[in-house]
Amino acid sequence: MAEKIKTSIVIDRNLWKRFKMKVLGERGLKGISEAVEEAIKEELCEDLIAEALEELLGPEKPPLAVNPVKPETDAGRVVRELRDSRL
Q: Where are the domains of the chain?
């Protein structure tokens, strides 16, 4: 389990009251801290994903080049055949 801290924030009273009532109804009293933590994680999700990928890849960086691929079929011809088959 990750180390936890206790903190104070300044937030709009009505906003906090609405949030707390919603979370209390859904999760109970202990769910408030979890809900705030989830909101923070959601805000930081791009950073968390990047960190996880860096851990998986190690020092290697994925190649950034994209090689174009020639399609195996002629899309125009396929569309024309489909349209002609409806007649």
A: 9-60
Residue 68 in contact with residue 60, Cβ under 8 Å? no
pTM over 0.85: no
pLDDT for 17: 94
What's the rounded Cα separation, in Å, for the pair 18 and 6?
21
Closest CA to 34 of 69, 65, 4, 71: 4
Six-digit token string for 65: 């080049």
**DSSP code per residue over 16-76:** HHHHHHHHHHHH-TTHHHHHHHHHHHHHTHHHHHHHHHHHHHTT------------SS-HH
Confidence band (pLDDT; 50, 70, 90) for 21? Answer: very high
Q: What pLDDT was estimated at residue 14?
A: 96
